[in-house]
Structures
1.
Amino acid sequence: MKTQKYAQDSIVIISRIMLPEDANAAGIVHGGVVMKEIDNAAGVTAIRHTRKICVTASIDRLDFYKPAFIGNLLTIKASINYTGRTSMEIGTRVETENLLTGVKTHLASAYLTFVARGEDKKPVKVPPLKLVTEEEFRRNREALARRKLRLAEKRKESGCRTDPDKC
C-alpha cells in the first residue's frame, strides 16, 4: 500500500485575468473558459497528489452562481476530497475579483473525477488520502456520498441500455 498523502500538500490556487478573447460581445466570460481553468487547476491537484499523469474522467457537478466579466481576476482553488483505487475526486471553488474595487464573488463550484495513469497509459493505484481537519473529513464524507450516487446512476443507465423497460 502506498503511503498516505495529506490533502493540503496538493492544493492548487490558480489566477488569471479575464481578457476580451475570454468573453462574449457583452463582456461576460464564456462558461467554457471557466470550465477549462477548473479542469487545469483540478488536474494539477491530481498530479501533485499522485505524481502521475492524470486524466479527467468526469465532471460530476458544475454550478455557476454569478457571471465573470472582462477585467476580473478569476481564481480557482482546487483540493482533493477523496481517493479510490485509481481515481480521485477534486473539488474546486471559483471566485472573481474586481481589481478596481476589491470585491470578490463566488462564481462557481465543481467536482471532478480524475484517473491516474502509468507509463503504459493504464490506470494505476493512487496514494490514499490522509485526512486531518474537520473540513477535510466533511469534504470526504460528501465526496463518498456523490460517488455512491454516481455509481448508482451508472448502473441504472447500463440497465436501461440492456433493458429499456427498466427505465
2.
Amino acid sequence: MAETTTQAKKIVKKKFFEVNIPLTSTKVKLYATNPEELDNKIVTLDMTKILKGKNLELKAKTSLKEGKIESELVSMILIPSYIRRTMRRGIDYVEDSFKTSCKDSELLIKPFMITRNHVSRAVRREIRNTARKFIESHARIKTSRELFSEIMTNKLQKAVSLKVKKVYPLAFCEIRWMEIVGPAKKPQSTESQVEEQTE
C-alpha cells in the first residue's frame, strides 16, 4: 500500500503558470503543481532594462481569483548602487521616510534628493518638509497603482522637484522606496469626533 501511494505522488508534475505584472508588459512564469500553490506569493522583477539603466526593483503579490492568477504591486525599490552613482563632492543630500495614505492603501514612502551645492541644515530641513507635504497631499487623491505608474515614468519626481525649487533647486530627485504597508485608513466619522470632544 505504501509503495502504491509513493508512485501516485510521483505522477504529479509541476508546470509553468503565467502571471501578468501590473504597469508592465512582462509576463512572469511561476513553477508549481497547481494555481493554489501560487496564492500570496511575492514576485520580484528587475526593471533596469525596461527603464533604460534605472536600477528599479518591483515586487508584486499574487492572488488566486476565480481560478485565475492575478497580481498587484506591493513595493518599488531603487537599488542602493544606483543612488551611490549619483553622489559627488560639493553637494548635500536630503532623505526622508514617512507613512501616508492614498485612496486605497497606507504607504511607506522614502524620497531622496540631492542639492546642486552645499546648503545649510535649515535649508535641508525646509526641502524635506516641502517634499513631504507635497507628496502627502498628492497621494491622497491617487490610487497606489497610479502612484507606482507616476514614479516609474518620473512624473511624481518632476512635480516634487518643481515644488522644492522654490526653496532650493535640486540636482537629483527620486522616490527610492514606496511600499504598501496596509489598507487605507478610514477617516473618523463626525459623530465619533463630537464624542471625543465632549469627553
3.
Amino acid sequence: MDFIAHPSKEVQMTQRGKYIAFEGWEASGKSTQARLLSRRLDAVLTREPGGTALGVAIRDLLLGNGPAPTERAEALLFAADRAQHLAEVVEPALAEGSDVITDRSYGSTLAYQGYGRGQSIEELMRLVEWTSGGLLPDLVILLKVPVETADDRLGDQRDRMESEDVDFANRVVEGFNVLAQADPDRWRVIDGSGSVDEVAERVALAAGVK
C-alpha cells in the first residue's frame, strides 16, 4: 500500500526571522530607530554590546570608567560579547521565526577597531566570521549624520567611545562608508538628519516595511 501523508500530520516548518542591524557613529539615532522599527515589525530588540547578562558586564569593561583595554583586548571583548549575544539571543529568536533588530553588529567592529583604531580589517573580519559562525545580518541600516551634529547631540556626559576625538570619529565614519559601498546588497545608507518620524519613514522604506 502506498503511503499517503495526511495534511494534518505534516511537519510545519517555521519560517526563519529576518536579522536587521543598525550601524553608525555615536548619536546618529540608531537606538531610537532600532526601537521604532522593532515595534513596527513586532521584532526582538537587542544591542551590542550588552544584549545579554554577560554582555552587560562586558559593556561596562569596554565603555565604563575602569582601566582602558588595549586595542587587541578591546576587539576581543567586543567579539566575546557578540558570540554570547548570537548564541543566547539572536539565533534562537531567528530560528523561532521572530525578526531581530540589533543596535550595532559586526560593522562596528570593522569601523571602530579597524578603520578607527587602525587594526587589520582582514584579521578582524576573520574574527567576526569565527565569532558569528557565519551569521551576519540580512540587512544593515547605516544612519548618517554629520560628525558635528553628533557631537552636539552627545552633550557633556560621554562614555569611552563617545569621548574619542574628531579624527577618530571621521575615520570611523569613513570606515562605515567603505563597508556600505563594498556590500550594497546588505547595507542601506540612510540620512539620519531631520525629525525622528522623517528618519523612521526612510528606515521603513529601506527595510521594505509598509
